[in-house]
Amino acid sequence: MPKDSKATTIPKQSGKAGKKAAAQAVVPAPAPFLHTPESLPAPALAGRDFLSNLDTSAAELRVVMDTAHSMRRGEWRGVKPLSGLSMALVFEKASLRTRTTFDVGMYQLGGHAITLSNAEIGLGTRERVSDVARNLERWVDGVMGRVYLQQTLHELADHASIPIINGLSDMLHPSQLLADYQTIEQEFGTDLTGKRVVYIGDGNNLANSHIHMAILTGTDVTIVTPVGYEPNGAVLMDAVKRGATVTLTNDLGAIEGADVLYTDVWISMGQEAEADIRRRAFQGYQVTPQMLDTLAPNGIFLHCLPAHYGEETVPEATEHPKSRVFDQAENRLHAQKALMYHLLGGAKPRW
């Protein structure tokens, strides 16, 4: 698939400044065609779970990413392939981007989403996870879970016959990585072999998922993190066995010349008790405009948000010319719509 219009490389801004920037931007060419119900690609992952990026092959990932790019270009405008289908959005953790984009995405594809908070469900406390799964499968066509434990998602998947999507867990954040790599492809094209992606900060669920994407896409992923905050050892070993290029270091010099610099919060939800210890451990790992100036000439900066300004980054970095942070946030909608289509597109409405 060809690289997106040059207009997509211009950082979006909000409010009046954004309108002025848009007026100065190159107007993208019209979409070459609009899909009709008859021209839609066959769902590549029909009926399957998406708990990890490795639940897809490289070829299947390519199909999903191509669909995401096509949706961003507006080629699916007005097509409702999930008409009559419903998805439950289960939240143990608070959310802005995940909740909004999955909900809006289902609506735009013709389906319906229902949001269920942990206060309403009480996964594993008010009710067994297996019982929740057996109930939901009788009513809806898919479940997205933003949960504390990866095991919760596996338990849902083990007891439900409908697709389960990982919207975030302690171990992985695969739906975020779809949006991240869509943003990277908008800059560098679809062949990312050898592109240097440097992740700086906590070796958390995002770091683990970046390692999985190195396996699938051929990127050269470097994790820069303090001693004691490394990514999951099993994830690292699996990547090495599969031949992925993954480097683990605490040397900040590894950032120089990177094509992509990525960071995340130092203190994730549920880690508030460790806040002071973590702030001390991550001193020096803050992404600044000066750091961005050391990237490759066409290098970009990504952050999955929310940003804790004054900790892992500063406002001047997310507003920097090399920042694609808000394009990345937009792509949560397109990438997750593509994922939902390929998981649910083969299902028939129940009524």
Automatic annotation (TrEMBL):
<feature type="binding site">
    <location>
        <position position="332"/>
    </location>
    <ligand>
        <name>carbamoyl phosphate</name>
    </ligand>
</feature>
<feature type="region of interest" description="Disordered">
    <location>
        <begin position="1"/>
        <end position="22"/>
    </location>
</feature>
<dbReference type="Pfam" id="PF02729">
    <property type="entry name" value="OTCace_N"/>
</dbReference>
<dbReference type="InterPro" id="IPR006130">
    <property type="entry name" value="Asp/Orn_carbamoylTrfase"/>
</dbReference>
<keyword id="KW-0963">Cytoplasm</keyword>
<keyword id="KW-0808">Transferase</keyword>
<dbReference type="InterPro" id="IPR036901">
    <property type="entry name" value="Asp/Orn_carbamoylTrfase_sf"/>
</dbReference>
<dbReference type="InterPro" id="IPR006132">
    <property type="entry name" value="Asp/Orn_carbamoyltranf_P-bd"/>
</dbReference>
<dbReference type="Pfam" id="PF00185">
    <property type="entry name" value="OTCace"/>
</dbReference>
<feature type="binding site">
    <location>
        <begin position="268"/>
        <end position="269"/>
    </location>
    <ligand>
        <name>L-ornithine</name>
    </ligand>
</feature>
<dbReference type="GO" id="GO:0004585">
    <property type="term" value="F:ornithine carbamoyltransferase activity"/>
</dbReference>
<feature type="compositionally biased region" description="Low complexity">
    <location>
        <begin position="11"/>
        <end position="22"/>
    </location>
</feature>
<comment type="similarity">
    <text>Belongs to the aspartate/ornithine carbamoyltransferase superfamily. OTCase family.</text>
</comment>
<feature type="domain" description="Aspartate/ornithine carbamoyltransferase carbamoyl-P binding">
    <location>
        <begin position="48"/>
        <end position="185"/>
    </location>
</feature>
<protein>
    <recommendedName>
        <fullName>Ornithine carbamoyltransferase</fullName>
        <ecNumber>2.1.3.3</ecNumber>
    </recommendedName>
</protein>
<feature type="binding site">
    <location>
        <begin position="173"/>
        <end position="176"/>
    </location>
    <ligand>
        <name>carbamoyl phosphate</name>
    </ligand>
</feature>
<dbReference type="InterPro" id="IPR006131">
    <property type="entry name" value="Asp_carbamoyltransf_Asp/Orn-bd"/>
</dbReference>
<comment type="pathway">
    <text>Amino-acid biosynthesis; L-arginine biosynthesis; L-arginine from L-ornithine and carbamoyl phosphate: step 1/3.</text>
</comment>
<feature type="binding site">
    <location>
        <position position="146"/>
    </location>
    <ligand>
        <name>carbamoyl phosphate</name>
    </ligand>
</feature>
<feature type="binding site">
    <location>
        <position position="205"/>
    </location>
    <ligand>
        <name>L-ornithine</name>
    </ligand>
</feature>
<feature type="domain" description="Aspartate/ornithine carbamoyltransferase Asp/Orn-binding">
    <location>
        <begin position="194"/>
        <end position="343"/>
    </location>
</feature>
<dbReference type="InterPro" id="IPR024904">
    <property type="entry name" value="OTCase_ArgI"/>
</dbReference>
<feature type="binding site">
    <location>
        <begin position="304"/>
        <end position="305"/>
    </location>
    <ligand>
        <name>carbamoyl phosphate</name>
    </ligand>
</feature>
<dbReference type="InterPro" id="IPR002292">
    <property type="entry name" value="Orn/put_carbamltrans"/>
</dbReference>
<feature type="binding site">
    <location>
        <position position="264"/>
    </location>
    <ligand>
        <name>L-ornithine</name>
    </ligand>
</feature>
